[in-house]
Specification:
Strand content: under 5%
Number of helices: 2
Largest sheet: none
Helix content: over 70%
Radius of gyration: 24 Å
């Protein structure tokens, strides 16, 4: 991009628009991350409520526990 002192008004407007778009995209990503974090926390709380013993499990133990209990039994 041209030196800021020699930018044309069109270049300046284009750069400002680009920065506004990047700011909007960053806010959207943050909203999505926050929504995902909230969902994961709430789902984890529900899991602990229904199966309190998971509080004491490592992630690996939890993964095995869920895999075993959620697999289809014919």
């Amino acid at each position: 991009m041209a030196d800021k002192k020699t930018m044309t008004p069109e270049e300046k407007a284009l750069l400002q628009a680009k920065h506004r778009l990047e700011a909007v995209q960053a806010r959207d990503r943050k909203k999505e991350r926050n929504a995902r974090t909230r969902r994961l926390i709430l789902e984890g709380a529900e899991l602990e409520y229904v199966v309190p013993e998971v509080r004491e499990m490592s992630r690996e133990e939890l993964r095995h526990f869920l895999s075993f209990h959620l697999q289809k039994h014919d």
